Amino acid sequence: DELRAEMEEMRDSYLEEDVYQLQELRRELDRAHKNCRILQYRLRKAEQKSLKVAETGQVDGELIRSLEQDLKVAKDVSVRLHHELETVEEKRAKAEDENESLRQQMIEVEISKQALQNELERLKESSLKRRGSRETYKEKKTFNQDDSTDLKCQLQFAKEEGSLMRKKMRKAP
């Protein structure tokens, strides 16, 4: 029960971290969206000025300075967004690694729990054996062998599921 409570606490804290990270990513996305709208507005403005220059055939010095400034701002925003994207990607990778280690810990805890239960059953059987109850002992032994086989299968499925999840997480954007 204590192990189960610890596992649930770990899972809850991990979920809380995921919610926080999701909120942070949404805020970053909103900021990027605002920047894109600003850049779109400036682009339209520059296109209008370009059309004006094309119609009149005159190049305005102020227009050139404005376009250069808009280009500089666009480059700065692009670089900043690229850095933010790299940071977010690193956080995501770190969260995936943490998630995988927590899954492994959960599997290890389950395995140790099963091992402890098997040990308890074995101790009960040895106690029954000492009492001279041979038939009961044989039945329990077959039952434990079946349990052992089942646990090995469960462990194998858990390992396969873990590897599949790792593959999915690596492919996820």
UniProtKB/TrEMBL annotation:
Any coiled-coil regions, as ranges: 15-49
Keyword entries, A-Z: Coiled coil
GO cellular component: apicolateral plasma membrane; lateral plasma membrane; microtubule bundle; midbody; spindle pole
UniProt-listed InterPro entries: MTCL1-3
Composition bias type Basic and acidic residues, residue spans: 124-144
Source organism, top-level taxon: Eukaryota
Protein's GO biological process: establishment or maintenance of epithelial cell apical/basal polarity; microtubule bundle formation
Region (Disordered), start-end ranges: 124-145
Record-level Gene Ontology MF annotations: microtubule binding
PANTHER family associated with the record: GIRDIN, MICROTUBULE CROSS-LINKING FACTOR 1
Protein name: SOGA family member 3
Organism: Mustela putorius furo
